[in-house]
Design goal:
Length: 195
């Protein structure tokens, strides 16, 4: 197991503890043998949101709570296959109930993270994507730069954040593209739930 994998688990732990009210949540880890089932879809917010992973990424079923899930590159979760063409990154997903008619957050709202500074913003698929630096979690092998976006579906605000090791393409525009694919997949899955 790489040092980065261990460090990224710690960053994910910080995010999950903050979001899950300090519940003890297991972090993604490969069992070393491979062969884990690829979980690419999960129900959040009592079924109001069907979270769907972008291609090459899977949901860690052990991280799932009603309003939270962690996604990682499938091979880091023990799924067999070739995923090295995908960036090594983790995505945290959380949901919050909002009033009917609530609009998707703008860049200013997304950038409101204590201790973080705005690096830049991108627009895509009608959404804002912000790249931030700093914030509460600082670990040696995880970049302090990260991406955020959020969107509303079925009166649920779905927050997505992406973390990656220093130098990863996921810290550049590719991170926003990856989140954009996660948003699109989740919107499609939520609009057409499995029956």
């Amino acid at each position: 197991m790489s040092i980065w994998t261990c460090k990224v688990r710690a960053v994910a732990a910080c995010a999950m503890i903050a979001l899950a009210g300090c519940d003890e949540i297991p972090l993604p880890q490969s069992n070393g043998a491979g062969g884990a089932k690829a979980v690419t879809r999960a129900s959040l917010a009592q079924g109001e949101v069907q979270l769907a992973a972008p291609e090459g990424y899977c949901i860690d079923p052990r991280s799932m709570r009603d309003r939270f899930a962690l996604l990682g590159r499938c091979d880091t979760l023990g799924v067999q296959g070739f995923f090295n063409d995908k960036d090594l990154a983790i995505i945290t997903a959380s949901t919050t109930s909002v009033a009917e008619g609530t609009a998707d957050p703008d860049a200013a709202a997304l950038a409101a993270v204590p201790g973080a500074e705005l690096v830049n913003t991108l627009e895509g698929d009608g959404l804002a994507f912000v790249r931030l630096r700093g914030g509460p979690a600082r670990l040696d092998a995880v970049s302090d730069t990260f991406w955020r976006t959020a969107f509303v579906v079925n009166d649920q605000l779905v927050n997505l954040s992406l973390y990656a090791p220093p130098g990863s393409p996921a810290l550049e525009r590719e991170g926003a593209r990856l989140l954009e694919r996660a948003v699109a997949a989740t919107r499609r899955a939520t609009a057409q739930p499995e029956g």
